[in-house]
Amino acid sequence: MNTPLIRAGRNSDAEGFIALIDACWSEYPGCVLDVDGELPELRALATYFAEAGGALWAAEEGGQVVGMAATRPLGHDAAWEICKVYVAKSSRGSGLAHRLMQQAESHARDAGAQRLVLWTDTRFEAAHRFYEKRGFVRQGSIRILDDISNSLEFRYTKPVAGLVVEALDAAAAASAERRLSEILIACVEAGASVSFLPPLAPAVARAFWQRVSSDVALGKRLLLVAWLEGELVGTVQLALDMPQNQPHRADVAKLLVDPAARRAGVGRALMRRAEQAARGIGRRLLVLDTWRGDAGEALYRSMGWNEVGVVPGFALLPDGSYGDTVFFWKQVS
In whole angstroms, what is the distance from residue 103 CA to residue 310 CA? Predict the structure, then answer.
């Protein structure tokens, strides 16, 4: 199979674009493409995005349009929208969708985008998994379109410039479960002190994050995640469900940084943001623990955490021996 050529989209691609979108929509019951009634811009899509200050790409193979993507500035908050991402069924699984998204994301970032936004039909579950794999998370309300397909759309977003840490609500936490599971598995494999032993099964990791999402929805847990140049690479939690006589306390848990993104300040940024978030909700005493000798121990000491003591043989190590655990506390108000 030849590798499709990704090139600038042209108005003359209109027939190919329309056929591609129509084929993708027809995979979902009730999705109807009415070009002239609802999407007349498809007749001259290159002009449409050029006038909006954006760009359009087509993936071509054997003279046929087999993929497309576009981006345009939103005009506020240094945000750009990713639009019209479609890949022919015959070309899926080849990496073409990632190539198209990378083209659009890179163009937006080079043009000054700080954040990317996209909208996707609630029925397009495969697309949701794809966007989540690329670090997008759900944010905001569902958009209702007054169209013949009775479309409802999820909003997905992610920061793309520098190192950014944000708190996720329940919907965003649920949409991040796949990527967070990948990070957890990688960290456990690398020997992180996070209550699991390698090899960690994907189903076990996913079940853990589903419980976290549930706690976020119930207000029992605050989930923070970090993006580095648009890649979701780290996370930390604040456990808030404390006894009645400890409303001033929270536990810091599961500081995780993708091994491929370490030594870039991600862990420190996550911890700093966790402390800020705790202050903001009136939790002035924080507690955490880690294996003695774990990389996190040096980080916590450097950030002013105070050692309470060491419990010998507190938990199993990957080699089957028992490891010591160090407990820390910090006043953050």
Answer: 50
